[in-house]
Design brief:
By secondary structure, this protein is mainly β. It has a 12-stranded antiparallel barrel with strand order 1-2-3-5-6-7-8-9-10-11-12-13. The protein has one helix at residues 2-43; strands at residues 71-81, 85-99, 102-115, 128-129, 131-143, 148-160, 172-187, 191-204, 211-223, 230-240, 243-257, 260-269, 278-285. It is globular and about 60 Å long. The chain has one domain (45-285): Porin, CATH 2.40.160. Strand 1 and strand 2 form a beta hairpin. Mean pLDDT is 85; it is low at 7-14 and 16-27.
Length: 291
């Protein structure tokens, strides 16, 4: 009997030790994978660059600390419940780095509308090519030691009229200017925070006054060990005409192939007077960088 009890105790100790060793081994393997991936992004080439998780809805112009020759194609598709109708957003975007730490982007967003069960007569807007958008982003501070990057940039949009009005000849609706500031910090290997903020100034044609809204986008992400995949949340906040509005956007990014990723976003508005839930998918292709 004593021998059986002793054998049981020894087996229990051995099982615990094996489980602990397996757990420690997995942790160590993940740490190695994280280190290798961070090394691939940061320390393999010059100039310095810090690995940051990029938000999926209000995305960056190019990776922070971009290196010359990097490029990316994006196709985005979204659906938003606008109470009295549904809107479908489609965008095609190309971004690249002509020199180190400078990103440039060109984008064409399109919005289509359809009725829903709550639609009323005359409530459906016209389909439109929203604008021709161009942007730049300059990372003026990159610190691998502090795992921090700071950047400045600007977006210019040439707003277009509804598709129904294009035949009349006046295709220009107005201009939008959006200077912005970005501060990003990685905590350890896996936790990422990012602040993207600035005014959005709209100047409509034939109107002397400009409309200004201030945007504050806060981002929190956790990158899964040893991968480019992450889960996180994007908080898109806007102050306009003295009112505050926010949309909470839980999101995830998955690597499908070496140079191909997919991002999935859900939008939950805090104030549902104008819209309800939304969804957005971003397909990301990064051509191989030979720099």
């Amino acid at each position: 009997m004593k021998c059986s009890v002793l054998t049981f105790v020894l087996l229990l100790i051995a099982s615990f030790s094996f489980a602990q060793t397996t757990s420690d081994t997995l942790v160590n393997e993940n740490q190695v994978l994280d280190s290798l991936y961070i090394l691939e992004v940061q320390d393999k080439r010059e100039p310095d660059k810090v690995l940051h998780a990029e938000p999926l809805y209000i995305d960056l112009i190019r990776d922070l600390g971009a290196r010359k020759g990097e490029a990316e194609w994006n196709v985005g598709m979204g659906l938003t419940d606008r109470l009295n109708y549904d809107s479908y957003g489609i965008l095609v975007e190309y971004e690249f780095a002509p020199i180190n730490r400078l990103g440039v982007e060109f984008e064409v967003p399109v919005t289509l509308y359809s009725s829903n069960s709550r639609s009323r007569n005359g409530a459906l807007p016209s389909n439109r090519i929203e604008s021709f958008k161009s942007a730049f982003q300059w990372s003026f501070l990159v610190s691998e030691h502090f795992k921090t990057t700071l950047a400045l940039g600007g977006i210019y949009e040439l707003e277009l009229v509804d598709l129904k009005k294009l035949e009349r000849g006046n295709i220009l609706k107005g201009h939008i200017y959006n200077p912005f500031f970005i501060a990003a910090k990685r905590w350890g290997n896996n936790f990422h925070t990012l602040l993207y903020t600035g005014p959005r100034i709209e100047h409509l044609r034939n109107q002397s006054r400009m409309h200004t809204a201030f945007q504050i986008n806060s981002n929190f992400h956790y990158m899964l060990p040893g991968t480019r995949n992450f889960i996180g949340i994007e908080l898109n906040k806007e102050i306009s005409h003295g009112t505050f509005d926010m949309v909470i956007r839980p999101q995830m990014r998955l690597g499908i192939a070496e140079n191909f990723l997919i991002g999935i976003v859900t939008g939950i508005p805090v104030n549902r007077n104008n819209e309800r839930l939304s969804s957005f998918v971003r397909l990301i292709y990064e051509p191989r960088h030979r720099g």
